[in-house]
């Protein structure tokens, strides 16, 4: 069943028509990836889903409820959490405080404790550094913290914006295997990623975005094997 349905959505930044009538859907349990060049509109799409931007026209339905234009904090309550591009952790707060902020919509203390244990189980390095200021973590650890913080709201749908950005290849592999684990544990994932090879290797389906339009969509493995996609996005 379609968990997220985006239909003919148009988004403007002032006079710039950034997203031009895109239609896409994410089914429950899937990892779906959006790939495309810089400036194609990938992050804009995620920011529109999470309520940081309002679409001019079109509909965005999450579990059959129209969420287009709903305030961002209410969208988190509906069950969508975003890991923003560039991590956006709270540098002046501890790791623990960042994670607790992720659970700001919840008051089920025992369950929050359980989820903290789950996050520390997934990201042991965060537990080792839980009292450290988040700004002193390495880039990879900050990415783990941003993901852990998003998981603390118990999202049904996790939006990931460029999780591999600025990370060493070994860490990228680690982050991607964690994304697969999170998905296997029951969270649906919509992934925006510059590293198309990695994204297609873990996704079920993919959409290719070019200057605000979806030009190709299909099975991730088939797209990874396509000559045109390889030339354009996979470095040969």
Overview of this structure, please?
- Helices cover 39% and strands 27% of the residues.
- The chain has helices at 42-49, 72-78, 95-102, 109-122, 124-128, 139-151, 169-184, 196-202, 220-225, 227-233, and strands at residues 2-13, 16-27, 31-35, 57-62, 65-66, 80-83, 157-161, 188-192, 205-210, 213-219.
- The strands form two sheets. It has a six-stranded mixed sheet with strand order 6-7-8-3-9-10, with helices on both faces.
- α3 runs parallel beside α6.
- The chain is globular and about 45 Å long.
- The mean pLDDT is 92.
The best one-word shape is globular
Strand content: 25-35%
Structural class: alpha/beta
End-to-end distance: 35 Å
What are the low-pLDDT stretches, counting only 5+ consecutive residues below 50? Answer: none
Per DSSP, the total helix count is: 10
> How much is the average pLDDT?
92
Rounded Rg: 17 Å
Strand tally, please?
10
Element-level helix/strand string: EEEHEEHEHHHHEHEHEEHH
Q: What's the story with the biggest beta sheet?
A: 6 strands, mixed
Question: Spatial order of the strands in the main sheet?
Answer: 6-7-8-3-9-10
What is the share of helical residues?
A: 25-40%
What does the secondary structure layout of this molecule look like, with pairings?
Blueprint: E1 2-13, E2 16-27, E3 31-35, H1 42-49, E4 57-62, E5 65-66, H2 72-78, E6 80-83, H3 95-102, H4 109-122, H5 124-128, H6 139-151, E7 157-161, H7 169-184, E8 188-192, H8 196-202, E9 205-210, E10 213-219, H9 220-225, H10 227-233
Parallel strand pairs: 3-8, 3-9, 6-7, 7-8
Antiparallel strand pairs: 1-2, 1-4, 4-5, 9-10
Helix pairs in contact: 3-6
């Amino acid at each position: 069943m379609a968990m997220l349905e985006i239909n003919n959505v148009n988004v403007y930044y002032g006079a710039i028509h950034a997203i031009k009538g895109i239609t896409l859907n994410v089914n429950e349990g899937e990892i779906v990836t959006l790939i495309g060049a810089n400036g194609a509109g990938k992050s804009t799409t995620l920011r529109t889903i999470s309520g940081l931007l309002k679409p001019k026209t079109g509909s965005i339905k999450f579990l059959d409820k129209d969420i287009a234009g709903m305030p961002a904090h209410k969208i988190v309550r509906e069950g969508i959490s975003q890991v923003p591009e560039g991590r956006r952790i709270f540098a002046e707060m501890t790791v623990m405080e960042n994670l607790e902020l992720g659970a700001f919509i919840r008051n089920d203390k025992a369950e929050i404790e359980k989820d903290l244990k789950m996050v520390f189980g997934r990201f042991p390095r965060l537990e080792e550094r839980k009292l450290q200021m988040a700004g002193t973590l390495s880039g990879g650890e900050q990415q783990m913290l941003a993901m852990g913080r998003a998981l603390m709201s118990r999202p049904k749908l996790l939006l990931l914006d460029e999780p591999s950005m600025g990370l060493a290849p070994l860490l990228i592999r680690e982050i991607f295997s964690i994304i697969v684990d999170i998905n296997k544990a029951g969270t649906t994932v919509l992934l925006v990623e510059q590293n198309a090879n990695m994204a297609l290797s873990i996704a079920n389906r993919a959409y290719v975005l070019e200057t605000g339009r979806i030009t190709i969509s299909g099975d991730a493995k088939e797209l990874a094997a396509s000559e045109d996609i390889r030339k354009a996005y996979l470095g040969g």
